[in-house]
Design brief:
mainly alpha, three-stranded parallel beta sheet, two-stranded antiparallel ribbon, 5 strands
């Protein structure tokens, strides 16, 4: 009965519960942002793994953005290092800024959707895509869709907001759309799935404009594919012709992928199950159909492109669109009901705790690897060696039993040496017992070029005064 003591007490209990969840919902994103910023600072040297050191070395060569394959979102990765270069900051400070680029972008995206657009749930989604499904990839935080995923959240929040209207809204949506679909082919796939999820056809003007931008983008990109992108498409079409799609659904394959998903991505699996369960409970036919269809599309595309299930940095980067898609559906189809906020926050908090523990566990291997490189740099200094051929390079096994980490990354070692004040820095490259000193430099340069890497072109650059002369064997 309205106004009864029981009804009043129940309303007060609901209000208190919503208030508590609302407070936690406001605090949770800041916990994530703070932790990820700490992680970036603490593991700055370790996060120079793989492509991270390659891009930073290129940027430090002349203080300019290094854009590859038309992936303009890479500006968000490189701007702190470019700014540091022009300000003349020491290299160690630039390494910290480089590592903090992802956290800075996350902070900007979070503040925009929560303060400008006043969309609290969008803020939760933005911080969630920053950690769900990631461990090894956090040590190579330069993959383009990592930044594109945050922009997907900003795009959707802007699309539904009434706080930005007219030409400003159209311009912002256009920029975000281009940045996301050009960030990676999987970014394009996820964006198209998001448009279906949001029923873009209900806004014909926006749909027509975005389709025009998509067509323009495809015309430009398909006419200028890099060798890497051409090889990727060729691999997909080759497997389609040779084995087709059905092999992806063989019992053995499905079982192997299910085990891999449960062990490597339990957080992603938990969110997916929660999302599917609530969509079924609410009889959200459209949301459930699009959600499952999106997962199916991603499973097929990723399986055809890179069927290897060995867990490693590259595997996580390729799989990353899956947790992004799951988080977006959770945000847009589940968190629209206030009474779902509590269970969602509990699950996301559990996922965040898992993504604190696991990266810290595997960080031991990355830290040992950096420590070993520093030891070799010190050994080179002790022998007055500036260009060293290193024998017996060890491999470091992360505790999750994924792919082993080769001990010596020449570009990463170069950055570590330069950041520690070596002038000229020590150049260390792995070698085998069959290598001889004579002619080694030429062979190593050709090997780097074949893999798409190269040393800084300016021997007397601001941060690298590269040594000359022959290589010396360093045991």
């Amino acid at each position: 009965m309205p106004g009864s003591p029981l009804k009043i007490a129940a309303d007060r209990a609901d209000s208190a519960s919503n208030g508590a969840w609302g407070l936690f919902g406001r605090l949770f994103p800041w916990l994530v942002i703070t932790y990820m910023a700490w992680f970036a600072v603490y593991f700055a040297f370790e996060r120079l793994h793989g492509d991270s050191s390659f891009f930073l070395v290129r940027v430090l060569g002349d203080g300019k953005f290094h854009i590859v394959s038309g992936r303009w979102v890479i500006v968000l990765i490189q701007w702190p290092a470019v700014l540091g270069w022009w300000l003349g900051l020491p290299l160690k400070a630039i390494l910290l800024l480089w590592s903090l680029a992802s956290s800075a972008t996350l902070l900007g995206a979070f503040l925009f959707v929560t303060r400008t657009l006043r969309d609290t749930n969008a803020g939760i989604a933005a911080v969630s895509v920053h950690f769900v499904g990631l461990a090894h990839a956090l040590f190579c935080p330069v993959f383009e869709f990592y930044f594109g995923a945050m922009l997907v959240v900003v795009f959707v929040a802007t699309f539904h907001s009434q706080r930005i209207i007219g030409l400003s809204r159209l311009l912002l949506l256009s920029i975000l759309f281009i940045l996301v679909i050009s960030s990676h082919f999987m970014g394009l796939v996820v964006m198209l799935m998001v448009l279906v999820l949001e029923r873009i056809w209900t806004d014909r003007r926006a749909m027509g404009w975005l389709l025009a931008l998509l067509a323009l983008h495809l015309c430009i990109r398909l006419g200028s594919l890099s060798a890497y992108e051409s090889d990727a498409f060729s691999a997909v079409f080759m497997r389609l012709q040779q084995v087709g799609v059905t092999w992806l659904f063989l019992p053995g394959r499905l079982l192997a992928m299910a085990i891999h998903g449960a062990t490597a991505y339990p957080d992603t699996l938990a969110i997916a199950l929660l999302t599917a369960a609530i969509l079924i409970f609410r009889r959200d036919t459209h949301g459930l159909a699009v959600f499952l269809s999106g997962l199916l599309v991603l499973y097929i595309v990723l399986g055809l492109y890179f069927p290897d299930g060995t867990h490693m940095v590259y595997r996580e980067i390729l799989d990353y669109p899956v947790p992004v898609w799951i988080v977006v559906v959770l945000w847009r189809r589940v968190m629209v009901r206030e009474w779902h906020t509590g269970p969602v926050l509990v699950v996301l908090c559990g996922c965040f705790i898992f993504r604190i523990v696991q990266p810290l566990q595997i960080s031991e291997a990355y830290a040992e690897r950096v420590s070993w490189m520093k030891d070799r740099i010190a050994a080179a200094h002790a022998r007055n060696i500036h260009r060293g051929m290193v024998l017996d390079v060890p491999a470091f096994q992360p505790c999750d039993k994924g792919q082993v980490l080769q001990g010596l990354d020449p570009l990463q070692a170069l950055l570590i040496s330069a950041a520690e004040g070596s002038d000229p820095p020590v150049v260390l490259v792995p070698a085998t017992a069959d290598d001889d000193v004579e002619g080694f430099a030429g062979r190593w340069a050709r090997d780097l070029e074949a893999r798409g890497y190269r040393w800084p072109e300016q021997r007397n650059g601001r941060y690298f005064h590269l040594p000359e002369g022959p290589f010396t064997l360093l045991r």
